[in-house]
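Q: Sequence in, structure out?
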Amino acid sequence: MKDLFGKAILDFQTNNSPEDLITETSISEADEMSVAYLFRSFDEMPELEQKALLLSKGKTLDIGCGAGSHALYLQNERNLDVLAIDISANAIEACHLRGVKNTRAQNVLAIENENFDTVLLLMNGTGIFGTIEETAKYLLKLKSLLNPGGQILIDSSDIIYMFDEDEDGGKWIPSDNYYGELTFTIQYKNETEKPFPWLYLDYNTLQNAAHANGLQCELICEGEHFDYLARLF
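A: Exactly. Output:
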């Protein structure tokens, strides 16, 4: 991995001529994303994210922390003990520079012998699962990280709306795989990242997967764009 997402974050943090990221998926055309959005304050966050941060409690693990905006709020405003992790070393460096006290460049699957009261996965938290097939592995790992009474707060979107309808109102969706399994490509400063899988789960599918892996699942709230926040415990 070239870690272009992390490079963009670190460029923005260090004022190193940051540019917009160009993202493209297997079902959508190239779109520009301002890196500044990843540095938003609590007041600038969508309601789903605000709700998740307000529900966070105790020792918290922020998975896929990006630029660290969620971790900073929990650390500075909620006074929680937060560990922010990301597979991007550049993003973690930016988090450190922003003042996140406890950071680690690490895949969640590599965490051993640590437990948390809250595990946080935001900005399409199901994305890191990659595919439906890998979902159970991740859910079991997340479950193993919980203290008694702990919770997983995770968001995603039902992207069925992105598919065309036929005359009867039915959706033209692929039959060979789950419609939320996408392939993502990122471009930054004329470099292109190797395509990677990214998973959007509708709520019912997440709930079924949670139950199948020994977790309870409740819908906390829904956003305006087919997105939702769920709590697993």
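The chain has one domain: 4-232.
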